[in-house]
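Ticket #4471: structure output looks truncated?

Reporter: J.K.
Steps to reproduce: submitted the chain below (291 residues) through the standard prediction queue, then opened the result file.
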Amino acid sequence: MRNTGPIKVTRLHPLFGAEITGIDITRPLSAREFGPIRAAFEEHSVLLFRDQPMDDEKQIAFSENFGPLETTGSANPAAGTKFQRQSNLDILTGEPIPPDDMRMIYQKANYFWHSDSSFKRVPSLCSILTARICPPEGGNTEFLSMRAAWNALPPALQATIEPLIAEHALEYSRNRVQKGILSAKALAELPPVKQRLFQDNPVNGRRALYIGAHAGFIVGWPRATGEALLHELTQRADQPEFRLSHAWREGDVIVWDNRAVLHRATYYDTVKYKRFMQRTTIGGDVMTVPQ
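Returned output as attached by the reporter:
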């Protein structure tokens, strides 16, 4: 595929998400070619590209169009690289990892709705996931429009949460799977941070609810009360009409806006099937609150 002519943007859902066709993103993109992709990203929050076979070098090159990439911390098997490895295959041998292995237990936290890197002082702009090996069934990635979730909140609840600050940490989401699963090194790398409960898009001004599994409690509130509010907001957001589920096939690439959507993994048979996905995470440039 040659990068000629205008791209085509086809909606995937009435509220968000679009498939982009008419461009080969495995090749270097000029600023003129990337411009419409970035505009579609700001508008639709989730972009799907089909039939784009990626290797690591090509994925990094495409990802860098969005900004500088985060370096993966010690909690992931791909620590020290630009990739978050999402797989049931051993990184050294390529063989399936047993289900009771701590590496597979750790990944169960991906089944919770979350925004990547909300546990960092400067949260992520977006994530890019490429499908290298896909199971024939299961293993979908689901997305929630947090713009729609914000708009659906009663005005009084919007006013209540607008001044609030939540504390986020990787530890909070991982403890929901198994307490103490993170090493002392991982905990030291990622101390808790504070985030607002919403983010405004700097291009179009659209507001999105900003929560997820890394959010532990509300600063200045009794712990149980804050946890209850975060749970209520997640329940309000998790509506079928706000949800987009993607069934992967090899060669798929999805870019999603961590400021505007939550996402989660879904179950697949890790004993029966192989799955290998590579994620790059693009760092943001604005803190939601002073730390």
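Triage note (M.O.): checked the attachment and the full token line is present. Residues 119 and 169 are 5 Å apart (CA to CA).
Status: closed, working as intended.
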